[in-house]
Amino acid sequence: MSLAEKKQKEVESHSFGHKFAESTKWALEKAFKGMGQEVTETKNMAHSFFRLLESKLNLKERKEPPSPEEVKEAIEQLKDLGRLSFFASISILPGGGISLIGLELLARKFGVTNFTFIPSAFRKSSSGTGET
Question: N or C: which terminal CB in the chain sees fewer CB atoms within 10 Å?
Answer without folding.
Answer: N
